[in-house]
Amino acid sequence: MKHLIRPASILGATVLAATCLAAGAAGAASPNAQMRQAMLTLRGLIDRRGAERYFTYPKVRTVYPRRLVGSGAWPDDPWTGRDMLPGRTRGHYRYTVSPDRRRYRLVGYTDGGVVVLSGGMPTSIMRAYDHRGEEGLNLIRQYVEDHAARHDGLYPSPTEVSADGAVRLEPERRYWPSNPWDHRDMTQRTDRGSFSYTVSADRSSYTLHLHRALKNDYVLRGSRRTGVWRCLLDTLEDEILRRSGRILRGYVERWSLEHAGILPTVAEMTPDGAVGATHTDWPSYPVNDGPMRPGTEPGSYTYSPGGDGSYALLIHLHAGDLDVGGDAPRPVAPPHSTGAP
Amino acid sequence: MTRRTLAAVLAAVPLALLLATAPRVLAVSFVDKQVQAGGLLIQNYIDRYGQARQFVYPPRAMVKKGGGLPNAKLIWPANPWTGKVMGPGTARGTYTYTLGADGRSYKLTMHLSRGNHVLKGGAPQWFKAERDTASRHNALLLQRYLESYRLQHGSYPESLDATGFPDPPYVWPTNPWTGGGVAEGSGLGGLSYKRVGDADYTLRVRLTTGWSTPALKALL
After folding, report:
1. How many C-beta neighbours within 10 Å does residue A260 have?
2. For residue A300, how many other CB atoms are within 10 A of its CB?
3. Which residues in chain B touch residue A135, judged by CB atoms under 8 angstroms apart?
4. Residue B168 predicted with pLDDT over 90
5. Maximum CA pair distance of chain A?
6. Residue A114: enclosing H or E segment and its boundaries?
7. Is A251 in contact with A245 (CB distance < 8 Å)?
């Protein structure tokens, strides 16, 4: 019998040791630790689903085994070994999502405590969306300015600043920026990624607001004084002033020819002076339609005669000064008599 | 109790214990399920890293306990076959992490007792389209800036960069792929600008599908 007891004891001890080792390896973590791990795993599944849906997180009823799309595996309730389910007792979880479904909260119930996790749209994506909204608003601003340039400088009414309004459709249909939050045309609303447009009663100025996620509204203002419309007008006015400068140069040179090479004085070279008196078609300042006068503002000129027949005539443009001066021509002297018969 | 009975009991008790725990310890599916669950946890860390970085996923050296993945310090899965920390490898209970060439996708292979369980991740489908839309926005906006520039200067600029457009102070668009100001270059979101005489130009932007077509040209 002794020879039976010894092998039986050895066999029993070996099996026990193996059992303990295997059990220890398989179940090393406590149930509470397993619960925390399960909660992190569940958060991972929710995050993946959110990222696939433009960072719109799942509805409460879909965070459930076999309902959450793409979740082939589901974490276990460590106390039952079955799929973890919603509830408020140990081994369960509670998932809540914000009304816009951009943020969520996940509470897991352990033995005597809770694990609270939260998640939502990453800030880096929100920042990128905000910046894209700013770029979209700048594009709309360009269309608004363009519209004013084609309507005598009058900025459009609010109803015209939309994806189906005149600002987009005239003179031809243009690309309209999209709202990164809903992937549709940017619209005048108050939610994130949308914008507001207001125009003054005389339609001479406007304000555009972009409603951002991370910061206060992004604001663009424009008026006839500062807008592209103003740039266009300045360019046109400068072109008129360049021509007017050439006309004034002609007056100086004609005076010189008619006065034996003597240049007009500063006082004479004015619309009310002697030169002006001989030219009824004195060039006008395009803004007020009055005659161009000496001065330093855009639309005026500075005349400086020199002693040797040269002169400076600076035309003051919006884009700087244009010097049309030079050397005035002298009348050709009659040929000298040689005294020969 | 006879010695025979005693021997029988001594042998039977451990055997009974072994049988009682056998479904939990020896069933391959149960332990492999723990390996899969561990993989999901690691994937959670990888995904959170990527989502916070515009879907650029971590390098291989980071995907391990203490490798620097955010929030991964406290809980890292154990290899149920060894009871130790789950780590990279090829044996059962370990994993292999491979990163796509552009860093925007990955594959996490969990090594089970027999075979593998593969978890994949990457930038979502909508992401490239979203970036391409942003790039097109940029080109259209710059087209408008070029027209303003011509109104002010009489011709289009030789090159296209922010320094040439100080006034009016419109926002300079951002390259959605780099986060920096958009600039000429052949990388994603980069620009190709060529002045054609004084009165025209071509402007393209690099999309995920290649250069945008048709090229934008002078409006005035």
Report:
1. 9
2. 15
3. 134, 137-138, 141, 171, 173-174
4. no
5. 174
6. strand A113-120
7. no
